Recover the amino acids of this structure.
């Protein structure tokens, strides 16, 4: 990076952009550089955690996200990121639900946290999953994500109906 080689924010931003484009492996060196310059850079920690989790390094990804949360526990998005990493790592559903609960306690309107919690509740609490997914659907703009939430909601309704 030629413009600001000593800027942790610049390196972190480039890493975030690469990760957002689905290039997690390419994002890691940028995020590492940001963290070498500023070890407590929350965005770099969180995005390195997500990238690591996506690339199969669940333990280190979780550690990064937990460190980011220790620095900024009141940020709902970080709890959602932790829930995503836990889900993708195959963690117990109770851990995913707990992370979503923390996010929703901070920001009750977060559709992503409601959707994740609803998916995690499918097997053990279909009625709760229906409530979460319905609320997520109401808050999700039209598009592919809304369609995915709608499909999850239909599945939850079928499971809930089967338990009655």
């Amino acid at each position: 990076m030629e413009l600001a080689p000593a800027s942790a924010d610049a390196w972190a931003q480039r890493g975030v952009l690469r990760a957002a484009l689905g290039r997690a492996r390419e994002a890691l060196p940028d995020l590492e550089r940001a963290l070498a310059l500023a070890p407590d850079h929350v965005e770099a920690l969180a995005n390195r955690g997500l990238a690591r989790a996506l690339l199969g390094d669940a333990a280190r990804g979780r550690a990064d996200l937990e460190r980011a949360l220790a620095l900024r526990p009141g940020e709902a998005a970080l709890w959602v990121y932790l829930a995503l990493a836990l889900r993708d790592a195959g963690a117990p559903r109770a851990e995913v639900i707990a992370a979503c609960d923390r996010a929703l306690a901070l920001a009750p309107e977060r559709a992503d946290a409601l959707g994740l919690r609803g998916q995690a509740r499918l097997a053990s609490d279909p009625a709760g999953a229906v409530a979460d997914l319905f609320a997520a659907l109401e808050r999700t703009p039209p598009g592919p994500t809304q369609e995915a939430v709608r499909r999850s909601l239909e599945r939850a309704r079928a499971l809930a109906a089967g338990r009655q």
Notes: DSSP finds nine helices and no strands in the chain. The first helix runs from residue 8 to 20.
